[in-house]
Write a structure and sequence with these properties.
The chain is of the alpha/beta class. It has a single domain, classed as CBS-domain (Roll), CATH 3.10.580.10. It has 5 helices and 7 strands, in the order ββαββααβαββα. The strands form 2 sheets. It has a 4-stranded mixed beta sheet. It has a 3-stranded mixed beta sheet with strand order 2-3-4. It is elongated, with a radius of gyration of 18 Å. 24% of the residues are buried. The mean pLDDT is 93. The chain binds adenosine monophosphate (AMP). The site of adenosine monophosphate has 14 residues, from β3, β7 and α5.
Length: 147
């Protein structure tokens, strides 16, 4: 859809603006925490989705959740990483939006979350909508507003 007014994008679907699932770094249910820490460190992302083998979203995992779990009384107990599964550590209460959600619906959620997980019509993980994408859309709208 071609926007005429700068705020027309608010009624556009996010569908064409998400980072699609194949480009999203993720871990799978059953992976151990050591692998997850490696993915988080290598990608530099603050948190990543946890998916099942059918590509359904099961939760989110952050570096903080991992370090919290291996925090001993006097030191971080890295040796415990390989024995822990991401399933035990992940956050399961995750906001999810549908792939046809309009931009105007994602503002509230993106205030509190750096990205939102997106599901398709079959409730499969389709990708993520990031705060960065919304900010870019907003910036364009603001710069093309009549004075
Ligand atoms: P950004 O808006 O690009 O700074 O991304 C915000 C957050 O979204 C990152 O810290 C990650 O948690 C997540 N994210 C962005 N891109 C990806 C990606 N390709 N794979 C996994 N997570 C991502």
């Amino acid at each position: 859809m071609i926007s005429v007014n700068s705020t027309d994008f608010l009624h556009e679907s996010i569908r064409d603006h998400i980072i699609s699932s194949e480009k999203v770094a993720h871990v799978q249910i059953g992976n151990n925490a050591e692998h997850a820490l490696l993915v988080l460190t290598k990608t530099g992302y603050s948190s990543i989705p946890v998916l099942d083998p059918q590509y359904r979203l099961k939760g989110l995992l952050s570096m903080g959740m991992i370090t919290e779990a291996i925090l001993g009384l006097e030191r971080i107990e890295y040796e415990r990483l390989s024995g822990m599964k991401v399933d035990e550590l992940m956050q399961t209460d995750v906001p999810v939006i549908g792939i046809n959600t309009e931009f105007r619906r994602v503002f509230d959620l993106l205030i509190n979350h750096p990205f939102l997980c997106v599901e398709d019509e079959e409730e499969m993980f389709a990708g993520i909508m990031t705060r960065r994408v919304l900010m870019k859309k907003l910036k364009k709208a603001v710069y093309t507003m009549p004075r």
